[in-house]
Amino acid sequence: MAVYDPRGGGNTHIDVVLTQISVAWPNNAFVGESLYPRVDVVRQSDKYYIFGREGWALEPSGDFRAPGTVANEIPGLQISLDSYFAKEHSLQIPVTDEERVNVDSPLAPDRDGTELVTSKILLQREILMQAQVTTAANFAAGYSTTNSGTSQWNDYVNSTPIADVRAGFRKIHSGLFFEPNVAIMPYQVMTQLEDHPDFIERIKYSERGILTPDLIATVLGIENCIVPGVGYNSSNPGQTASLGYLWGKDVLLAYVPPRAGLRIPAFAYEFNWGYGAGRPQVAERWREEPRKSDLIRVSRRYDLKIVAQDATGKAIAGYLIKAAVA
Q1: Burial, 18: exposed, middle or buried (Cβ in 10 Å; 0-12, 13-18, 19+)?
Q2: Looking at the domain assignment, is residue 91 inside a domain?
Q3: Overall number of domains in the chain
Q4: What's the confidence (pLDDT) of residue 3?
Q5: How many Å apart are CA 123 and CA 113, to the nearest integer?
Q6: Which of 258, 303, 299, 305 is nearest to 279 (CA)?
Q7: How far is CA 23 from CA 44, 161, 294, 298, 300, in A?
Q8: Is residue 148 part of a domain?
Q9: pLDDT greater at residue 16 or residue 149
């Protein structure tokens, strides 16, 4: 690995300190790996296992082996017809000499630049995740529904959010034999549920009279309730800002395994082709003397895939409720 030369030499190297800053960058507002566990892969592109229910099939000839005979042979796990391809996602930012000499700590501009670039890399990944899991066409028949009118959860008289979620539980369990353990309840949905009579009635005798994500998770019987509140600006540079919530008003239930692996069923995975030494992403730094600047680049190589599928290639480890609130 090259040694960084601040005098300039055109060399690029992985900066360990900045990489640690990038990997540890706080992203509590993001769903990220809570929904798409990271699977580290050794090849940039390859096929992957899908959840084909092979372990549930009874063998017509059974499993008895007579002495001196060969054991009955079963087929292996199904391989996806699709392949992942871990594209590189990279952004960079200059740290000028003028900026560096006008701060108290010489590392501060590098840290700030690394965090800014990292936030944009992770925001773009979050946008790709949100688009994939809130598209009803990506789910098998019966694994998505759309609320409207009085069924939307902001109607406190007629709507039944707990019953709606339990219907999703039953649907996922019927095809996976696992209950979902993660619920994505966006901020706009959560703030409506906090005053919903269905929940208020169930917690009114508890020690805490205010609904929290933990309490809602307890009422729903789900391990992890995530409330993404990240916003973004959808306008082009130079235009008037158009701010909005990324995760909107759709609710997702999903089964996420406690341990990620190529042969472990899950709603979705991030196939990450890392940079060695357990680095899912890296920060690099080099000098460009004509610009009198150091350049910092953050890169991550990944592909996002829904992996637990039915015969038609649609998701069966998740349940989508579109337009949960108006």
Answers
A1: buried
A2: yes
A3: 1
A4: 40
A5: 15
A6: 299
A7: 20, 37, 20, 10, 10
A8: yes
A9: 149
What does residue 239 show for φ and ψ, rounded to 5 degrees?
A: -90, 165
Is the residue at 1 inside a domain?
no
Mean predicted confidence (pLDDT) in 121-139 = 96
Nearest CA-CA partner of 121 in 241, 226, 22:
22
Residue 147 tokens read as 């609320």
pLDDT in tens, 1-21: 334 344 344 456 787 878 877
Reference 133, options 16, 31, 11, 244; nearest CA is 31
Token pair listed for 29: 């507002």
**pLDDT tens digits, one per residue of 244-291:** 999 999 999 999 999 888 778 899 999 999 998 889 999 999 999 999
Domain-embedded: residue 65: no
| Distance of alpha carbon 288 from alpha carbon 291, whole angstroms | 6
Whether residue 55 has pLDDT greater than 60 = no
Strands 251-254 and 182-184: antiparallel
Contact 293, 304 (CB under 8 A): no
Domain containing residue 196: 12-50+80-322
CATH assignment of the domain containing 272: 3.90.1690.10
List CB contacts of 89: < 8 A, sequence separation 6 or more: 121, 124, 125, 299, 300, 301, 302
Contact assessment for residue 159 and residue 151, using Cβ atoms and an 8 Å cutoff = yes
Contact 4, 16 (CB under 8 A): no
